[in-house]
């Protein structure tokens, strides 16, 4: 396994910086990793490193081209997501870059919180990915998937006590996926909050909490579905 | 791994026959396996064998003390479940027998269809099990769990297109588990029907269908949660 390399890329005029980590040996696949609203953090780097340890090339996306300090991230995120064309282009720039980095590897995408929302948006946009996996991602969208638009298999790992994703969003999401004809797996963890994969959540925050079991089991589920889906391609 | 041994046991005056299979070496745990409404079948034996291959002692329960031929199974099952005291006693007889067979092993219970309903009933009844795992089991009950009654961790693996378990049952179940303070994981598989773990479902039946991915992924999820839960005890 390598250390992280920074990879400059761009979305139109905006300069972005990805973080790439390679496995020892030939990658089993190339995985785009979409971070939380805070952009690249040690928690997300740890997940990319775990992918490399499992034999995958992992490439962490850059949402903004700069690092947010504190709550300004919410403004940047809202601005980015306000126009679905801009939002999808920003996400696609990461996949295009990953295609250049690993042209012969099968691709997948995973994401955390806003990154989970991002990978679902890529799926709705018809991205050619083996799977997308969302960890405590937002499920709602202004652009529900069209019939047969989704190519990727979908895995959503969701804390049922996540205040940002109430149960009516869950049911709407299932309905959206069925209408689109998607292949989806949805894992709900009782009593588990937002951000359950991050062992060091921001203090003084009732919305997020690490959950060791949900973190372990969701990661294993993702690796299992990824391996199966790559075998089947 | 051994071959199956038959183990006579009883529930009151009713003679029952369990099917036991042992792993090679010291068992990592002892697992009660509750079959479908059809009682022991090759599909359930295959799952018990897979548990033994994974290092567990597995003991297949006997619901009726005899083998149903065809639709008579539904009558027998309805009669057995009509009185929760009788139903729970029948299930407890299996756990008691397993305690005698493997007194020093930590215990868990898994079940398929009616067997999934059975293991959830055992959890509601406060059985001292590391986990219970239901595969395409019925979720409704006449005796919802009391607050703090459930000791076992709960895993439900559910086909979202199972006509026997509509989405309102799913939501009621989540509410029941939360009210009881249970630790639960719920996996829903989009478009997947009842009986998804059985590669040879009865022909001419629109309710059931094998799903290779749901079968594989649910099994891996169960083994992962079981291993984690045994480590934590």
TrEMBL record, chains A, B:
<dbReference type="InterPro" id="IPR050261">
    <property type="entry name" value="FrsA_esterase"/>
</dbReference>
<dbReference type="Pfam" id="PF01738">
    <property type="entry name" value="DLH"/>
</dbReference>
<dbReference type="GO" id="GO:0016787">
    <property type="term" value="F:hydrolase activity"/>
</dbReference>
<dbReference type="InterPro" id="IPR029058">
    <property type="entry name" value="AB_hydrolase_fold"/>
</dbReference>
<feature type="domain" description="Dienelactone hydrolase">
    <location>
        <begin position="18"/>
        <end position="228"/>
    </location>
</feature>
<keyword id="KW-0378">Hydrolase</keyword>
<protein>
    <submittedName>
        <fullName>Putative dienelactone hydrolase</fullName>
    </submittedName>
</protein>
<dbReference type="InterPro" id="IPR002925">
    <property type="entry name" value="Dienelactn_hydro"/>
</dbReference>
